[in-house]
Design goal:
The structure holds 2 protein chains of 2 kinds. By secondary structure, chain A is of the alpha/beta class. Chain A is built from 10 helices and 14 strands. In chain A, strand 9 and strand 10 form a beta hairpin. The model of chain B has no long low-confidence stretch (mean pLDDT 89). The chains are: A alpha/beta, B mainly alpha.
Chain lengths: 309, 258
């Protein structure tokens, strides 16, 4: 069964701006799905429509088979949302925010307390449960929003930039927490500007560009969308740049410094060809790493120029 | 869980949250109207009122009590819902409600009854304060309850509608400053219609708050410038109209969902 099906979704705002144009998307149950796009591409509008925060202009949305137009309550019960901006009452205490949110979903406090305690402890917020939300740091506020999205046991968790502005350690904690949820069977949709996050966590990805789907792919197949890939090699001694020229047709090598060079391969050429060449030259490789991040490279290629706008 | 019991939990959660807010912010929600009313009783009732002859057969201070109670019911129910809902919109915590399956009826009831709760608390205190100035008994407790509670419901709904449309803080004060306060002061809180010239009577008679004040005055003292049953009917009809407007606005997402 599909967790989320979107068909021919359109959104035009009252000022005439077309935020989404004929979007169609299907996300399987249990998937960890990334929705990427430059600022203003339409990601938040898409999430807003699915979570009933934005009215759609046309199209159809269904969540676990429930139609958004006809079974909106069932759709809402199935989804937990972690929005991009902090949207809780900063003058309320952590425990109250969570109990109230569970209450809005019809879960009485005596039933939600156990779950709230479990998630607060898992995300290191338990000792702050009686703190007023405004006293929490940005990272703790972010975690509070994740717990809040889970208090009613949703089957689909949607996270809009969940790790924006949090430190590296906390980001890794949130990653492992989300991985665990996904292993337990929860479907997760994520938007993020940290593309290594997407590469690490997600199985599938859609890239939105100017309100349209520019690409839908599994993360492992994203490589096919890149005409070239670049690697950085560290070797035990400098290489002869004249000889490098001879291989320009197969792969392009560029010396960075003594013992380090950059190799750019077309998608038809294997990395083994580079290894063979280096072996012939009796050059010992000490390290190889990909330059940049391939999700990032695909993203930049597909949304070229839109960042500046 | 059955849908009805789930909706009841949702409604109670919102209602408890909103009433907790009234208590938590008591220096803003409860205290100021009590100070203002005490000053009215002291200045208009005791200092100036002693020089004014009886109105419709009762001392001026006593004549003024129902009007001041009605004034506090109107302003407090309106302000409670309007400010709370607008602040939730402003800091986006209203999204907690919008993403959840809480029904629009529960949202309206939750906010409205919290507005009623605040206005009843304030009114009760004002009655107690008034009794320290002058002794009296209530003429009709059923009418008293009906007029005060239904008026609070009506103005809570009006507050909700204003908050739905409001885009900045100024917008929530405009109605209070330019509509509610003038209409209340000109609605017979401090005078009987017999005391004003016939040219002004027309403006008083088209003022809806005049009927509410007189309805409550009848409940307190058994005197009124208008037919009480008619006033009650208009009140119920107005609630129906404003409830329908609130529901439609929430359902369409006006001011809430782009």
């Amino acid at each position: 069964m599909s967790a989320l099906v979107i068909e021919n979704l359109n959104k035009t705002y009252s000022n005439g701006r077309k935020a989404l144009v004929d979007i169609s998307l299907s996300i399987d149950k249990g998937d960890f799905y990334a929705v990427l796009g430059a600022n203003g591409a339409g990601k938040s509008t898409l999430i807003g429509i699915v979570t009933s925060l934005v009215n759609k202009s046309s199209g159809r949305v269904s969540v676990f088979g429930f139609d958004l137009d006809r079974q909106v309550d069932d759709v809402k019960k199935s989804i937990g949302l972690v929005p991009q901006e902090f949207n809780f009452n900063i003058f309320e205490r952590v425990q109250h925010i969570l109990e109230n949110q569970a209450g809005y979903y019809g879960v009485p406090p005596e039933e939600s307390r156990e779950k709230i305690e479990r998630y607060l402890k898992l995300l290191g917020l338990w000792e702050y449960r009686n703190e007023m939300a405004r006293n929490l740091s940005g990272g703790y506020k972010r975690r509070l929003m994740i717990v809040r999205a889970l208090v009613h046991s949703p089957k689909l968790l949607i996270l809009d930039e969940p790790t924006a502005g949090v430190d590296v350690q906390l980001r890794k904690n949130i990653w492992s927490f989300l991985e665990e949820l996904n292993k337990e069977g929860m479907t997760i949709i994520l938007t993020s500007h940290y593309l290594e996050e997407v590469e690490y966590l997600c199985k599938n990805v859609a890239i939105i560009n100017r309100g349209e789907i520019a690409l839908k792919s599994s993360i492992k197949n994203l490589n096919h969308y890149l005409p070239t890939k670049t690697y950085i090699f560290s070797v035990d001694h400098s290489i002869d740049t004249k000889k490098i020229k001879e291989h320009d047709n197969d792969f392009h090598l560029k010396s960075i410094d003594r013992g380090t060079f950059e190799v750019t391969l077309s998608s038809k050429v294997s990395l083994n060809d580079v290894f063979s060449y280096l072996e012939e030259e009796k050059i010992k490789i000490t390290n190889v790493k990909e330059k940049g991040n391939f999700v990032e490279n695909v993203f930049v290629k597909l949304t070229k120029g839109d960042h500046a706008k | 869980m059955q849908n009805k019991s789930r909706q009841f939990v949702s409604f109670m959660t919102l209602f408890k949250k909103e009433t907790y807010r009234v208590f938590k912010l008591w220096p803003q929600t409860i205290l100021p109207p009590l100070i203002t009313s005490s000053l009215y009783f002291l200045i208009f009732g005791t200092v100036i009122g002693s020089r004014i002859k009886e109105v419709q057969g009762v001392p001026f201070l006593l004549f003024m009590v129902p009007g001041l109670v009605m004034m506090s019911v109107i302003i407090n129910s309106y302000m409670n819902v309007c400010s709370s809902f607008f602040i939730a919109k402003f800091q986006k915590s209203i999204e907690e409600l919008l993403v959840s399956p809480i029904s629009y009826h529960s949202i309206i009831f939750g906010y409205t009854l919290a507005g009623v709760f605040r206005s009843m608390c304030v009114s009760l205190f004002i009655v107690l304060i008034s009794k320290s100035f002058i002794s009296y008994d209530f003429h009709n407790l059923v009418y008293l309850t009906l007029f005060s509670v239904l008026t609070a419901v009506l103005f809570s709904l009006i507050g909700l509608i204003n908050a739905i449309f409001a885009v900045k803080f100024d917008d929530i004060n405009i109605v209070t400053t330019f509509v509610l306060t003038p209409l209340t002061y000109l609605g017979g809180v401090f005078y009987s219609i017999d005391q004003i010239s016939s040219s002004w009577k027309f403006f008083v008679l088209i003022n809806p708050i005049f009927y509410l004040v007189n309805g409550l005055r009848y409940s307190f003292l058994g005197i009124s410038d208008v037919a009480v049953g008619q006033a009650l009917l208009v009140l119920c009809f107005s609630i129906f109209v404003f409830y329908s407007i609130s529901y439609t606005l929430l359902k369409k997402g006006v001011g809430l969902r782009p």
